[in-house]
Amino acid sequence: MDAAFTAEQDEIRRTLRDLLTRHGGPGEVRAAVRTTEGHDPALWHRLALELGLPGLAVAEEYGGAGCTATELALACEETGRALLPSPLLATAVLAAPLITALGTPEQRAELLPRIADGTLTAALAVPGGSMAAALGLTADNRAAAWAGGGRAGGIQAHPDGGGGWRLYGEADRVLDGHSAGLLLVAAHAGGYPRSRTLLFLVSAESEGLARTRLTSMDETRPLARIELRDAPARLLGADDGTDVCGALADTGSRAAAVLAAEAVGAAAGALERTVAYVKEREQFGRAIGSFQAVKHRLADLYVRVEAARSAAYYAAWDPAAGPLALAQALEAARIVAGEAVQLHGGIGFTWEHEAHLYVKRAAADELLFGPVHRLRDHAAGRAGLFGAVTADGPVRGVAV
């Protein structure tokens, strides 16, 4: 493994950081989250047209750059540093890989070019509001609890008799679900006899679809409730026994690596702002950053951020390490954001201060994709550290 970045990868990082430094400051972030979309549409189109951000990991044959998860992780590290509200995570990290893995050639040709050029945004809607479980990050997603089961619960899919499908049910905490032009909906099909989970494509203009933006802890992560009342839908791919849960888990591992890089960027951003503050804030006639106790605290935070960054970069190369890297990065972001508030003193405890943007991002991400202890527990269980592993999880106390 060559850990050095290429010139192209360094250029992606530098160009994006320069752009977000000019157009993604705390004031711009607060203004963007109060728009109807929950992000700045003009900046999003600029990121898509000038930098090709949503198409970084999309194959060249579909108008993308054909890059790897590493380039996408580097880009998300920079968007995390600025706490940029954008559809990038929901569209490029979660939806596009599922369309690539499961879609028919016609569906890929129809949707991926529009995702790559930024004209189409997408969101993954899973019932129960448990994104982490659906992606196999905190539990075995082959257990049907997160998707509903039997003849009721979750989101139910029924053939409409004309080759299409109708969906009924609702999903909470759908990331960017209120503004996405396309929804990928996980639904339960077949009732009890042929129980299975499938993914469906639902247009934002579909009849029977209602979307409500929710009040969320972190406004830079807009969430929505999706209600489907006999909404027309197209099956993603073919109902031919394709392992949908396996595709969700594979996407989850790769997404975890990108999310880890984004969380590292947020932690680094909070640390950089804190270091700049303690160099300027004076007490007893000297900058508080010159006090040994403050230096030690900052040094500990720096080591924690760098360790999480190394784990995130490794996971971008080996997605199997994604959930563990995500756990380390989320923990680092939470601790660094909390320390940032403390080291800013009285001003850091005001809601108006930018330090709280990082606190809210760290807390919200752990609620959405964690918690940390479950990420680690599931990863340890899959590795057999606690004993034999069955379909229902590890069997405690059984030697391996």
From TrEMBL:
UniProt xrefs under SUPFAM superfamilies: Acyl-CoA dehydrogenase C-terminal domain-like, Acyl-CoA dehydrogenase NM domain-like
Keyword Oxidoreductase recorded: yes
Family membership: Belongs to the acyl-CoA dehydrogenase family.
Record PANTHER family: ACYL-COA DEHYDROGENASE (PTHR43884), ACYL-COA DEHYDROGENASE FADE28 (PTHR43884:SF20)
Keyword DNA repair in annotation: no
Keywords, alphabetical: FAD, Flavoprotein, Oxidoreductase
Lineage, broadest ranks: Bacteria, Bacillati, Actinomycetota, Actinomycetes, Kitasatosporales
Organism expressing this protein natively: Streptomyces microflavus
Pfam family, one: Acyl-CoA_dh_1
Required cofactor(s): FAD
Full protein name: Acyl-CoA dehydrogenase family protein
Gene Ontology MF, one: oxidoreductase activity
Domain Acyl-CoA dehydrogenase/oxidase N-terminal: start-end pairs: 6-118
Domain Acyl-CoA dehydrogenase/oxidase C-terminal residue range list: 257-380
Its EC number(s): 1.-.-.-
